[in-house]
Amino acid sequence: MIVEARGLGFTHRAGTAALSDVGFAVERGQTVGIVGESGSGKSTLVRLLCGLLPGYTGSATYAGREIGDWLREDAREFRSRNQLVFQSPSGSFDPRLRLATSLAEPLRSLARRKPEPGELETQLGEVGLSAELLSRYPHELSGGQLQRMALARALVVNPAVLYADEPTSALDVSVQAQVLNLLMDIQDRLGATLIVVSHDLAVVARLCEYVFVLRAGSVVEHGETTALLRSPASPYTRALITAAESVALDRGVSPVRGGAARRTIRGWRPHG
């Protein structure tokens, strides 16, 4: 396993337990979804696994080594290998800096080097952006462009594990499919492990091979995506699926967007 947790717990300073006895395991190169309603502990889990929340209980490892040990002894190496794309791309960029400076920052701080000539331009091309955007400020980009820029910044250090926290929640429906296709292309091309946090089961159905369902800080169910969505064992998972189908029917669309998707879930469609 490249990422694994056993009996994982985390309590906020206010005394609220955000995670309780969580078991979580991801194989190298796998694409895994973490789903649940708001407040279920999804974002807390990925921030902990990325080393952004110290003070957890239980065990959390990357490549067989405890994350706490990584952070004490090889923090730069750990952060280079584990990159997080935050839920709000606009909030993760310094509005005072041009995007060239922000995109180069992981190289300077983690790899301790300057970008090679043309390196940033090449990285933007990998996510479908023009090099001319490097001279702009974050507010000058659209939501979809800024999400792609956030992906480019995470990928510039060639991580082994890429975490995407609600990668489409801040985007218009017309842009969501583009970002999902981009994530699939990145995973296929680079072979990186992809861990996706989402409350949207359609996103997980399209992207992920395996899924963990969180409720109130605990894993209530996990399994291969197709089987789990077709025959959920937990009433909570069934309620999430019903809610997703209701939203899709209101919109007049299928929960699994994009008819040409390479990863589709058979047997899970709106009723009627």
From TrEMBL:
Q: Which GO terms describe its biological process?
A: transmembrane transport
Q: Which domain of life is it from?
A: Bacteria
**Which GO-annotated molecular functions does the record name?**
ATP binding; ATP hydrolysis activity
Q: Alphabetically list the UniProt keywords.
A: ATP-binding, Nucleotide-binding, Transport
Coiled-coil stretches, from where to where?
none
CDD domains reported in the protein's UniProt record: ABC_NikE_OppD_transporters
InterPro entries associated with the record: AAA+_ATPase, ABC_transp_ATP-bind, ABC_transporter-like_ATP-bd, ABC_transporter-like_CS, P-loop_NTPase
Q: Name one Pfam family in it.
A: ABC_tran
PANTHER family per the record?
D,D-DIPEPTIDE TRANSPORT ATP-BINDING PROTEIN DDPF-RELATED, TRANSPORT ATP-BINDING PROTEIN
UniProt record similarity statement:
Belongs to the ABC transporter superfamily.
Protein name according to UniProt: Peptide/nickel transport system ATP-binding protein
